[in-house]
Structures are given as structure tokens and as C-alpha cells.
């Protein structure tokens, strides 16, 4: 079953690439049932927090509401499958909500919140267990393929040209410009 859920997350990561997003897919499972699944939508929404895991958390809250379930109870018994090691933001969110377990594919050497950049688990008295390496080659290949191309949805850099630097001197009763 674990491999099946990771394969579903990998399918979502492939969808993300097709939409011009960083290829991260995620599946939340509660009592053997997928209750949320998502992918990165950062570029589509122009919202840097719309990572796959946070999109799934929103879906989980909605699922709990529709099914008369307590969010905290569901999350504490929920298992997460995500294609890439959660970033520091997402790992912190999952730990603070105390999810039952997180299984990820490949490491995230730039932003990882488990072992790669910062071990966020040390910040929590009872961190959620996180294990990596499931289908890591496939997850890493999606990332490599994505980063070989260019991200057409990325914001254009704003470089100011020919601007003068003004130095302000602040004295007790006045401000002068140099």
C-alpha cells in the first residue's frame, strides 16, 4: 500500500511539472483512505505558501468538516506520503500538528526540514516520525527534469539600473541629503 500511495504522489508531482510547478506531490491517508491529495500550486496562485503539503492540510480541514470529524484527531492518526522531503515550513507544520508519520521520496538539499538543511524535529517535544527514500530515484528524476528547463511562471527579476544611492545623515534636529 505504501508504494501505491507514493505512486499517487508521484503522479501528482508529474501533474505539477506539466503545470509549470516544482514537482512535489502529496497524499494524506486516514484509516487506509486517501482524504487529501495535492501538488505544488505556488506559481498558479502566486502564493509562495501553496506547497503540496499545505494544500493537503486545507483539504483535510474541509474533509473533516464534511464528515463531522475532529481535525486534531484525524491529523494525529493520519499518514503523509510526499515525493520530496518537506521544506522547513511544511515539516514544521506537520510536526506542530503531530501527524502520525511522514514518508518522503528524495532529500531536499536546498530547503529540507528533516535532515538536509534543518532538522525541525528538535523544535518539538513529540515530533512526527519522518522517513525518506521511498521511490527516491523517481522523485529525484522529476526534480532534475524540471530544473533542466526554465520556469516560465517564475517572477521576472526586478533589477534597478542607473539609480543613484542617496545617503541620509540624521542629526539631532535635521535630516540632510548628501
From TrEMBL:
Entry coiled-coil feature ranges: none
Keywords noted in UniProt: Hydrolase
GO biological process: tRNA wobble adenosine to inosine editing
Keyword Hydrolase (UniProt): yes
InterPro entries with a match to the protein in the record: CMP_dCMP_dom (IPR002125), Cytidine_deaminase-like (IPR016193)
PANTHER family the UniProt entry points to: CYTOSINE DEAMINASE FAMILY MEMBER, TRNA-SPECIFIC ADENOSINE DEAMINASE 2
Span of domain CMP/dCMP-type deaminase: 1-126
GO CC list: cytoplasm; nucleus
One MF annotation (Gene Ontology) recorded for this entry: tRNA-specific adenosine-34 deaminase activity
Keyword Cytoplasm annotated: no
Pfam family, one: dCMP_cyt_deam_1
PROSITE patterns from the UniProt entry: CYT_DCMP_DEAMINASES_2
Protein name: CMP/dCMP-type deaminase domain-containing protein
Amino acid at each position: 500500500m505504501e508504494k501505491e500511495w507514493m505512486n499517487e504522489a508521484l503522479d501528482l508531482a508529474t501533474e505539477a511539472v506539466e503545470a509549470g510547478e516544482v514537482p512535489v506531490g502529496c497524499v494524506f491517508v486516514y484509516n487506509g483512505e486517501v482524504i487529501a491529495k495535492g501538488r505544488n500550486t505556488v506559481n498558479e496562485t502566486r502564493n509562495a505558501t501553496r506547497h503540496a503539503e499545505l494544500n493537503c492540510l486545507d483539504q483535510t480541514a474541509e474533509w473533516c468538516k464534511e464528515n463531522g470529524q475532529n481535525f486534531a484527531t484525524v491529523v494525529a492518526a493520519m499518514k503523509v506520503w510526499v515525493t520530496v522531503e518537506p521544506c522547513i515550513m511544511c515539516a514544521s507544520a506537520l510536526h506542530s500538528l503531530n501527524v502520525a508519520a511522514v514518508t518522503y521520496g528524495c532529500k531536499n538539499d536546498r530547503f529540507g526540514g528533516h535532515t538536509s538543511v534543518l532538522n525541525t524535529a528538535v523544535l518539538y517535544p513529540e515530533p512526527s516520525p519522518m522517513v525518506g527514500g521511498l521511490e527516491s530515484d523517481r522523485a529525484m528524476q522529476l526534480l532534475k527534469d524540471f530544473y533542466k528547463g526554465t520556469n516560465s511562471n517564475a517572477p521576472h527579476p526586478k533589477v534597478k539600473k542607473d539609480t543613484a544611492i542617496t545617503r541620509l545623515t540624521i542629526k539631532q534636529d535635521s535630516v540632510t541629503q548628501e
